[in-house]
Amino acid sequence: MAPAIKTAIGAVFAAAIIAVVWMFVLPIFAREGFVMGRGDYALTTTANEPFTQTTLEGAPSAVFFGFTHCPDICPTTLGDISLWQDELGAEAADLRVFFITVDPERDTLALLDQYVSWLPGAVGVSGPEDQIRRTEKAFAAASQKEWLEDGDYTMAHTSKVLLFDRGGDFVDAISYQEDPASAVAKLRRAMDAG
Fold first, then answer.
1. What 8-state DSSP symbol labels residue 31?
2. For 146-166, what is each residue's pLDDT tens digit?
3. Which CATH superfamily is domain 3-192 in?
């Protein structure tokens, strides 16, 4: 089997595992008093500001976990967010987008800034590995390093966009390549709540 096919199969398998974790772990957290986005984590944004649970307060937010070397999910999702913003027009002016790296080893703040700066309202977020893992736990997200045959690696990661209202409360999640009308309706709900 060709190396590219093996890599693609591995990535699909890892994404499936993460999807199953999302479907089954999130309800467990909900039953145990888990509150999405809340936790003891401290990262830094590309605007050189702290990113903590209180950062989600004050304006509606979309939170997405990814990495700058992502071949498909991350650039596609950032493009989708741009299309959703276009559809929302002036309504999207207050929407903040936080792109949290799952690969702090490679994703410096400067690289993250280059990666997301074209998207209105978007900032990159990074920090030490242990803080990234704490943040993933607070958002019921997951990631895993996947080694490639050439010695490089990729990251399997949660691909949902998590939506929070002005009060910093979780409203809904948008799935990877969800129907645009559904995604925009969820964004409107998040922007109108709180």
1. H
2. 999 999 999 999 999 999 999
3. Glutaredoxin (3.40.30.10)
